[in-house]
Design a protein that fits this description.
The chain has about 325 residues and is α/β, with parallel strands linked by helices. Helix content is about 40%, strand content about 15%. The protein has 15 helices and eleven strands.
């Protein structure tokens, strides 16, 4: 039998693998490819861009996918959630903010509600909101997250806190060994970002994908630098894990001085984004970079993760000696 968990039953999928809804990277083609391969693809709605979201929903075609949003930004673009729910997504994935204003709307439309958390307190609140799946995110994760809890101590604690609600693990997961480990810690599946960033179908720039393949976890840091230059009002408790570059080397932990220099720095940053110059522009990526060494099709990544995990879990009984 293939690897299966209650997460597979929850979403009607073959493999307990979810695509992280990475803003600007997890588009419709990538989400559809992950779903076709037996996982669940999620489009990254990010901060809310109606034209982009409509285009990517169309790119997903008839595949059953979900959509993720940065929760605190929905207050500025509430109609985008209505737009998504009209398409009857498989799930809505909310991160970083108070989800309560949106719970009834999502669940009332029949979509599954996924809430991402970084602390036990947030996990308990997500359960009280009626989340169908709670994602425990560790500091290893690429992109935005909290700065205090590593993934593997956090996952079993969240599992114990919210049972019987299902939990998925997120943060630096890039191969089947980590999927197997997450399952043994009590998670019902995993959410994978950076590994899918470096896939053929992702919307990431070719130069960014090449840098992901070339770098490792030691090359990442958690920083506010890239939020400062993009003038995004992220809550103070969250930073973004990204690949260090010349911009972060100059301005990391110098937020006040960087803000004062934005008149000159912001235009240079925007030009770098347009040019695909990632010695200045941001690449959000997690500590799992060490395990990302190629740029295959997304479906191949799903099959690799699931196959590796299944093989390891079948071998696991050999580690336990016979009963005396």
């Amino acid at each position: 039998m293939p690897l299966t968990t209650p997460l597979c039953s929850l979403f009607g999928i073959r493999h307990p693998i979810l695509l992280a809804p990475m803003g600007g990277v997890s588009g419709g083609a990538l989400a559809a490819a992950v779903t076709r391969a037996g996982g669940l693809g999620l489009i990254g709605g990010g901060y809310g861009d109606r034209a982009w979201l409509e285009r990517e929903l169309a790119a997903a075609g008839n595949e059953r996918v979900g959509v993720g949003f940065i929760t605190w930004s929905l207050a500025r673009t509430p109609l985008l959630l209505d737009l998504v729910l009209e398409r009857a997504p498989a799930a809505v994935f909310l991160s970083f903010g108070d989800a309560r204003p949106y719970v009834d709307k999502v669940k009332g439309k029949g979509s599954k509600l996924i809430l991402q958390v970084q602390t036990l307190g947030q996990a308990a609140e997500a359960r009280s909101c009626g989340a169908d799946l709670i994602v425990a995110q560790g500091t290893e994760a690429g992109g935005h997250g909290a700065i205090h809890r590593a993934l593997f101590p956090l996952v079993p604690a969240v599992v114990d806190t919210v049972a019987p609600t299902l939990v998925a693990a997120a943060g630096g997961i890039a191969d089947g060994r980590q999927l197997a480990a997450a399952l043994l810690l009590g998670a019902a599946g995993v959410v994978v970002g950076t590994r899918f960033f470096a896939s053929r179908e992702s919307l990431g720039h070719a130069n960014a994908k090449a840098r992901i393949v070339a770098k490792g976890g030691d090359d990442t840091l958690r920083t506010r630098t890239f939020d400062v230059v993009r003038e995004l009002p992220w809550p103070k408790q969250y930073t973004g894990r990204a690949i260090a570059n010349s911009l972060s080397e100059r301005w990391h932990d110098r937020d006040e001085a960087f803000t004062a220099a934005l008149a000159a720095e912001a235009p240079r940053y925007r030009a770098a984004v347009t040019a695909g110059d990632f010695d200045t522009a941001v690449i959000f990526a997690g500590e799992g970079l060490d395990l990302v060494r190629d740029i295959p099709a997304a479906g191949e990544i799903v099959e690799r993760l699931a196959g590796e995990a299944e093989t390891l879990l079948r071998r696991a009984p050999r580690l336990v000696g016979p009963h005396s």
